Amino acid sequence: MLEWMWIDSGEVMMMKRHSVAVALACLLPIGSAMAAAVYVSGRGQSHDPGIALEDARADAVDKCTAQGGEPVEEVYNHLTRANLWLADSIWECEVP
Fold first, then answer.
1. What is the biggest distance separating any 2 CA atoms in the chain, rounded to whole angstroms?
2. How far apart are CA 40 and CA 58, in angstroms?
3. CA angle centred on 49, ends 45 and 50, rounded to 5°
């Protein structure tokens, strides 16, 4: 059987603050365990387009691991011909 209790507004406010603090304390470990997805870019240049793209990919992966992250996948790459082949590579990276 439910019983209703009457309490003054000061006690109600304290109970609300306490319940909010408990809820936030419970969510804190979950939020800190989640990894964030960031995007890193790398650049490369060479007389050979394959080497330029390989260097760009290696540069992006190095930038990801330097942040303590794990490369997930390449999301974009681009090659341009100038005096040399210029390559760009963009990777998704999960960092803690």
1. 85
2. 11
3. 105
Q: Are 37 and 64 in contact (CB under 8 A)?
A: no
pLDDT digits (tens, 9 = 90+) for 33-84: 577 999 999 999 999 999 999 999 999 999 999 999 999 999 999 999 989 9
Nearest to 56 by CA among 46, 47, 65: 46
* pTM score of the predicted model: 0.64
Amino acid at 8: D
* One-letter amino acid of 76: Y
Cα–Cα distance measured from residue 28 to residue 34, given in angstroms and rounded to the nearest whole number? 10
Q: What H or E segment, with its residue span, contains residue 81?
A: strand 70-81
